[in-house]
Amino acid sequence: MEPVNIGVVGLGTVGGGTVDVLHRNSAEISRRAGREIRVSRAAVRDLDRSRSCDTSGITLTNDPFEVANDPDVRVVVELIGGETTAFEIVMEALEQGKHVVTANKALIATRGNEIFRAAHERGLVVAFEAAVAGGISIIKILREGLAGNRVKQLVGIVNGTSNYILTGMHERGSDFEPMLREAQALGYAESDPTFDIDGVDAAHKLTILASIAYGIPLDFSAVYTEGIGTIQGKDVSYAEDLGYRIKHLGIARRRGNRVDLRVHPCLIPETHLLASVDGVMNAILVEGDAVGQTIHYGAGAGANPTASSVVADIVDVVRTLTADPGNRVPHLAFQPTALTSKDVTPLGDIECAYYLRLLALDRPGVLAEIARILGENNVSIEAIRQQGTKNNDGNVSVVIVTHKTREMSMTRAIGAIEALPAIAEPVMRIRLDTLEA
Ligand code: NDP
Ligand code: HSE
Fold first, then answer.
1. Which ligand is nearest to the CA of 128?
2. Does the 138-298 domain belong in CATH 3.30.360.10?
3. Fewer CB within 10 Å: C terminus or N terminus of the chain?
4. Minimum-distance ligand to the CA of 106?
């Protein structure tokens, strides 16, 4: 069979890794795909910049639309990121009858419904394995391996940068900023790292996973999103004292006719497998009614692991170039006509346990007042601890772990606690989840 020409838009961390893996493993990749896969064209922003990959034999341009319009290119691989130019390139490639592979979760989470509609109408594939959890084949697992299941919950550590920072705080007592700089230097962070820190990147990924798990249209705006920016070193160590680890989680959980869709830091038991997922590693727990709990682990970012998923998608697309489009696996696992919206649980209605950290005046009766407010709001205390010694103003840190309650009860209780004259600063609240079935 004739070689297949592909065009790569973007030769940064992921694009460079992709070209590298395609060169390095070309013989095995050809045996798997059934034909040679050749990168014939690539686009970059700066033609003078030196590249980490071998670009010999690749015609370089700084106009990404030249790649999308090249008649010899069958598959366009979009690896520039962002939601505007990337969207135009993908739509142009589809318009020109080309299949697309992308690692761009922002693009899929926010514009995926339009993109998949356009691809479906033309009988084309848009593959996006690398968009979620780097090197873990979680899209394939959910879409194909678990196709027989009704998914009960999906809980993932899906942002490598946040996990890298939290791990540094836990293991080395490091501060936030230097850990972020390390993650950036290693190529893990987004070009705008606030996407990682504020939870937006994880919310993009959860949007995609939830859609595939529950057969719902992509709806990024429905995900409650909180990042790790407010977590302090003392929260990491207080949690540790109590037998928990703080992880940044994406949670999609079925509850009757509704689904919880939320991304936030969370205390989990230190004995749970997810608690030992450190550094840039990602892991996703998927619980199906038939299979029970499964956990999928691997590198969540970086050139080679992400390239592994991009190349797997390229091979998949090449294998099915001649297949009848009707026989391909649907983009979002469920047939496009079978996607149905589901109500998302309002934040106030979610139920979980909580870790609270307060700075309170160290005098008789203060803890009793706090306990009274919690009780009046249906919040029951599991553990309470005074941490450290009194500061110069006579305040001391108090940590409380509660039993499960409704978020709206907790919010009301926190408001009342913060109004007490003996409370010196806003209450720190972190949700706590045992990840049980
Ligand atoms: P980089 O910033 O490292 O690379 C971006 C590349 O795109 C660069 O080569 C840049 O060119 C090129 N580029 C940007 N804009 C244009 C343009 N208008 N025209 C032509 N080329 C352009 O990003 P990453 O490789 O880290 O990320 C790429 C995508 O992969 C993003 O969607 C990201 O979210 C996703 N992703 C990243 C992971 C990671 O570990 N980094 C993991 C999983 C997904 P130049 O080099 O000349 O500046
Ligand atoms: N910035 C992302 C992360 C890259 O840190 O997980 C992988 O999607």
1. 1
2. yes
3. C
4. 1
Distance 125 CA to ligand 1 centre (A): 21
pLDDT per residue rounded down to tens, the chain (437 residues):
899 999 999 999 999 999 999 999 999 999 999 999 999 999 999 999 999 999 999 999 999 999 999 999 999 999 999 999 999 999 999 999 999 999 999 999 999 999 999 999 999 999 999 999 999 999 999 999 999 999 999 999 999 999 999 999 999 999 999 999 999 999 999 999 999 999 999 999 999 999 999 999 999 999 999 999 999 999 999 999 999 999 999 999 999 899 999 999 999 999 999 999 999 999 999 999 999 999 999 999 999 999 999 999 999 999 999 888 888 999 999 999 999 999 999 999 999 999 999 999 999 999 999 999 999 999 999 999 999 889 999 999 999 999 999 999 999 999 999 999 999 999 999 999 999 86
130 CA to centre of ligand 2 in angstroms: 10
CATH number of 4-134+303-337: 3.40.50.720
Residue 223, φ and ψ in degrees, nearest 5: -90, 125
Cα(301) to ligand 2 centroid in Å equals 5
Helix axes 13-24, 303-319, angle to 10 degrees: 60
Task: Name the token pair of 337.
Answer: 């006509």
Catalytic annotation, residues: 205
For residue 50, how far is its CA from the centre of ligand 2 (angstroms)?
24
Distance, in Å, from the CA atom of 411 to the CA atom of 256, rounded to the nearest integer, reads 24
Judged by DSSP in three states, 386 sits in strand
Phi, psi for residue 395 in degrees, rounded to 5: -100, 150
Best residue for ligand 2 mutational test, from 159, 195, 248 (most atoms within 8 Å of Cβ): 159
Pocket of ligand 2 (CB under 6 A): 134, 159-161, 188-190, 196, 201, 300-301
Give the closest residue (by CA) to ligand 2 atom 7. 301
349-432 sits in which CATH class? alpha beta
The domain spans of the chain are: 4-134+303-337, 138-298, 349-432
Separation CA 263–CA 211 (nearest Å): 15
Residue among 408, 407, 398 nearest 369 (CA) = 398
User: 138-298 and 349-432: same fold?
Assistant: no
Looking at the CA of 67, which ligand is closest? 1
